[in-house]
Q: What sequence folds into this?
């Protein structure tokens, strides 16, 4: 995804198939900010063009003005495609490795609890919730640990991929041989070369669409841990604060909030305090 983005950002505007004015770009920026909270920096113009040009081709419009008018005339299906096109879904198995032993330790201490509930709030194509599931299986030494993982994302395309749980070779390269053997099934036929997560992992997770920007989230806590990694970077501080405030009543009083490597919630230190590198706990328990 990063590589494609680079190519997209460096692509020459003179080779463009459609006219994309500064006003069109500003309109897109406002729409995606309002709908998904995503703050697109001014440098993203070429990326936005190349991602949305595909939507113009698919819908048959020959200019951005008409396409954006069509989008704004209450068109839920196109809103979904528009949003899916503009999200960045880079993820990896066991990304930010140091979080997993911390999670395991935290959960093992709660072993006597009937049910452990975890929320992965920007789950992308599934690598993150499946990594959490693997860590939980390891922690409980059982393929049916008393753990439920809610995995949500705004982008319905990535959720569909996550639900399939099939990954190509290059996505699996950083996973150890033991883990591959323990948690994946080798693809056959048209899936040769790829691997599918074992059904036990899949059974631990519920995938659902959820926009972190929505006023109301139809979910119920308390969660023993919330993963909100590498998504807050797309939001401004005000939006981040609103989301963090909504996490507070959903997190168990001694629960943990995991953030991405470049995310800091210092501006919300009345809500969350740093416990260790990119791991937060409630400021007031
Ligand atoms: C860069 S990925 C991070 C994935 C994963 N959490 C990780 O750290 O590897 C960001 C994800 O956030 C999702 N996202 C963006 N805006 C969102 C919103 N308003 N609500 C929920 N998810 C959102 C995107 O669709 C994307 O899958």
A:
């Amino acid at each position: 995804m990063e590589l494609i983005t680079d190519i997209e950002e460096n692509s020459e505007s003179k080779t463009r198939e459609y006219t994309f004015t500064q006003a069109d770009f500003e309109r897109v920026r406002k729409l995606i900010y309002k709908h998904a909270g995503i703050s697109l920096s001014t440098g993203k113009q070429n990326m936005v063009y190349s991602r949305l040009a595909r939507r113009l081709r698919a819908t048959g419009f020959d200019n951005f003005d008409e396409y954006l008018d069509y989008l704004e005339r209450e068109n839920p299906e196109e809103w979904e495609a528009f949003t899916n096109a503009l999200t960045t879904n880079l993820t990896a198995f066991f990304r930010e490795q140091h979080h997993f032993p911390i999670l395991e330790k935290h959960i093992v201490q709660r072993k006597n609890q009937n049910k452990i509930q975890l929320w992965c709030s920007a789950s992308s194509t599934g690598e993150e919730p499946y990594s959490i599931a693997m860590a939980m299986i390891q922690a409980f030494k059982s393929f049916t640990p008393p753990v439920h993982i809610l995995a949500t994302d705004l982008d319905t395309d990535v959720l569909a991929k996550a639900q399939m749980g099939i990954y190509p070779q290059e996505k699996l390269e950083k996973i150890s041989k033991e883990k591959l053997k323990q948690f994946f099934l080798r693809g056959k036929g048209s899936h040769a070369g790829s691997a599918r997560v074992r059904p036990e992992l899949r059974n631990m997770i519920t995938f659902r669409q959820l926009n972190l920007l929505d006023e109301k989230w139809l979910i119920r806590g308390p969660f023993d841990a919330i993963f909100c990694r590498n998504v807050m970077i797309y939001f401004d501080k005000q939006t981040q604060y609103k989301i963090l405030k909504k996490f507070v009543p959903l997190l168990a009083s001694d629960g943990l909030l995991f953030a991405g490597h470049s995310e800091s919630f210092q501006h919300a230190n009345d809500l969350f305090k740093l416990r260790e590198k990119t791991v937060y706990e409630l400021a007031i328990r």
